[in-house]
Structure formats: C-alpha cells, structure tokens
Amino acid sequence: MSEFTSGILFLRKDIRLVANYVNRVTDFNCIVNHLNSKWSVLFTPSTVSTEEFCENLSHKLPLLYFWNNEDHGWGYIVFLRGALHAEFNVEYETNVEEHISTHGEHTDADIFSIFKLSKRHIILLQEVLAGNKNVDKFKKILKIENMSWLNYDKCDEDVLDSITVLEVQLREESKIPLISNETTDLSPFRKNGQYGYINDQGDIVVPPIFDRANYFSNGLGRINYKGKIGFINHAGEYVIEPDLDWASSFSDNRCVVDKADRSMVINRSGELISEIDRKSYTSNWKFREGKVNVETPEKLYGFMNEHGSWFIEPTYKEAGHFNDGYAWVTLPSRQTLFINDKGDILHVPEGYRVGSSFSEGLAVVSQRHTCGVIDTKGILLLEQLPFTWNCFKEGLLSIKFQHQYGYIDICGNMVIEPAFDEAFEFLNGIAMVSIKGKTSFIDKSGSLLHKPQKYYNTIMFSMRENTIFKAKYKERFMYMSKLTGEPVFYLEEFDI
C-alpha cells in the first residue's frame, strides 16, 4: 500500500494555544503527536473541514497543513491570521507546470520564516519548490522527516485524553490541568477494520466487533457500533447500550450524552441525572469535583454543576478544571489566578504567578526565570527552583537542571539525579524517560527498567497507566511492555 500522510503542523512551543483550542472548542476527536523538539502535528477526522478548522485555529498561531500521497502528489497550505495564506500542490499524473499555473500555487519560500526557518533553509526550500519539487527534500529541510505514514486513521485515541498526555510530554503547557487516566488492564486494538481490547499480556479479552473503541475511564470503555455510541465493562458487556448519538468520556462518574435531540447528564448505570443545554455552550464536558468548565457564546467561561446550572457565573476569559478544590481562571485583564468552588481567590505569593494546576495538593508558581511550589493555602513551600510547568505526581516533580532532567520530592530533595534528556510524570511507580533520542522507563530509584530503544509515535500512549504502550519499533507497529521493552502485541501495519 502506498503512503498517505496528512496533518496540521505547528511549532511545538505553541502547544498551549493548540491545547486550549482543541480541549475547549472542538466537539470531535482529534489527535496530537510531536515529531521532534520543533514540530508537533495535529490530526482531525475526515468528517471535519480541514480548511475551516485551520482558518479558525490560525487566528491564534500559524499552521502548515501538509499532505503526501505517494502515488498522486503532495503539497501544503499555510494558514495565518484566520485565512489561507499560501498554497502549493504537485500532482504526479499531470504536467507540474500546467497544474501550478492553473491553480496559482505559491512557490515563495519566504512565507516559512513564520515557522522560524533560517535564511539558509529558506533558500534551500525555494530551490526545491521552484525546482524538482521533491517531497523528501522538502521534509528534510523543514526537519519533518518523521511526518510519514501518519494521518488520523492511523491514530487510535480520544482527544480529551490525548491532549492531557500531550501537555505532560511536551512540558510546555502552563494552564490546562493534567488529568491522569485510571488504571486498566485493557487497551484497544484494531483488526480488519474492527476494534476490540487486549490485556497487558497481549491476550484478546474483547473480540474486535466495534467500529471504534477508546480507552477506559471510570471503569467503562466508550465504543462505536453501527453508527451509535455505547459503553462496555471490562468483560465486554454493554453497561450502556449503543444507542447514543454523541457522548463524552466518563469523568467523576458522570457523562454527557446526546440522544434523540436531547442532551443529558447520566451516571455509570446510564441513569438520567439531568437534561442540559449542551449545544448552546462549548466544553469538553468532563466533570471535575462535580463541576465542568463551560464557554458561553460570548466567549466567557464559568462552571456548571451536573444539573446544568451555573455553579460559578461565566465572567472569565479562560478557565481550567477544578483540582484539589481550586481551578485556575484568567480575568478579562489577562491576569491568571486560582479560585475555590465559591469563586474566592487564592492569592499566590507576591512576585509569583500561576504556573500549573494543583496536583496532590501542590501547584507550581513561577517568576521570570525560576519557580516555586505552593500548597492549597497559598503558602510557598519551595522556591528558587529551575523553571518548569510540570506537576507533582506520586510525590515527585520532574525538573530540568542545566541540560538534564531529574526528580525532586515535596521537600525539594533531589531523589533522582539529573541524567535524562526528557523525564515525564510517574504513573504507578514508573516514568518514561529519554536518553540520547531513545526511550525507556525508570522506577522511583531512578533505575532503568530496560535498555533504551528507538521508538516512534509513543506520544499519548506511553503516558497511560497501562503497563503497555503503542509504538513504532523497527518499522512495525505494536504494543510494547513498559517493564521489559519487549513486544506484547503486534498491530495492523497502519493501526497507530
């Protein structure tokens, strides 16, 4: 089968803007992956208008929509300030020059300066666009060689879980709260176009009979079957029949669903809690501590309860989820602060600003070049730490000291010495780390669980609490064991 790749590229540093938009504005599944230290890529389903989506998102950041159909051609569109700004397209079946003339393709590489390309690389890019139009050279100059065999259909993930993992792994997001996925020994897989579930040993537990399957949350797996959505338990039995038109994932043992033109909040048994006016507002409809952040048509944020009533009135420019009794909010003045469930402000120490959401009763607050840690009373417990947006997980915080990452405890003691190029949060006693471009996992002593390997496309999957994760390894797609680094279950070639 020939390659078909398509995705929306953006600068990795802009992840906060993308995460804010995707997690709050979209009501469809998206997937985000990172290619390298510079580029990340966003995938949207084929049912979504890519042009409309990019135009809206490009109000916040420049976007490069890239596609490559190995048999038919390749091209890109640059979106900037809410509009299509430049376009280039090569079709292999037609005369290239005739095609360019007919469609007015843009071959001026100067536009790529908005993506921080050097003058030298822009000159090289111009030579490719005006010359042989070789897609491999184009990708090499932009440093997106890993943008191969990737598109939405090759990903198998839910945006609302993916995006939180993205924030952890890319360590760029300062505002959107980090949400752990609960432990489960089941992971979705696809075979012959249908989805089922395997356990951590690679045994098929639920046969592949669904049109789509998502990871479990609150003990239930969301599935698509014959155009409808339902939820199953770990035995593959329906807990909520597949007769829903739309459904969020379960969180706080609640789920928002659409059925027969009604929007409702239900519990894990499928019982009605309340009817709500979902379509008048924008939200991911994930409840946290009994509340969900919601955006009004006037672009203001507030918090609703499970009955669809305003718990805290919509007066904020942005808002996160509640964690440990507090949520971050951004005022119209652009100041970001913490509020409790009564709307009262938790003042951070003077000279500091909100850095991360609360996690395990602690939150990072930042100064210009350093950061500190406060408790839920606003008391500064640690200060003069290297700058970070990470959160404490299982009592440890990953921080970059000079050029490498290590871990400190809640007292500020260095418990795992800096030895990693990247180091992520602990989940069930293990954490993913990167050493010289290779990936492994460590325990809380800092010991490697297996020899670092060169994995690809580990984003989102590595950070789940399951002990297996999806990866591309030696040109094969598979589930790998975090504990041993060995293959557990081989996937269809394009299923990742």
Characterization of this structure:
The model is unreliable at 94-106 and 156-183 (pLDDT under 50). Helices cover 12% and strands 39% of the residues. A hairpin with a 2-residue loop joins strand 33 and strand 34 (438-442). The chain starts with a strand and ends in a 6-residue tail after the last strand. Among the domains are: 4-160, no CATH class; 400-490, no CATH class. Helix 4 (119-130) packs antiparallel against helix 5. It is mainly beta and 496 residues long. The longest helix is centred in the N-terminal third of the chain and has 12 residues, at 119-130. The chain has a 6-stranded antiparallel sheet with strand order 2-3-1-4-5-6. Strands 10-11-12-13 form a 4-stranded antiparallel sheet, with no helix packed on it. The protein has a 4-stranded antiparallel sheet with strand order 14-15-16-17, with no helix packed on it.
Strand content: 35-45%
Order of strands across the main sheet: 2-3-1-4-5-6
Could you tell me the mean pLDDT?
83
Helical percentage: 10-25%
What structural class do the secondary elements suggest? mainly beta
Low-confidence stretches: 94-106, 156-183
Total beta-strand segments: 37
Q: Number of helix segments?
A: 6
Organism: Paenibacillus sedimenti
Pfam family, one: WG_beta_rep
InterPro entries: WG_beta_rep
Protein name: WG repeat-containing protein
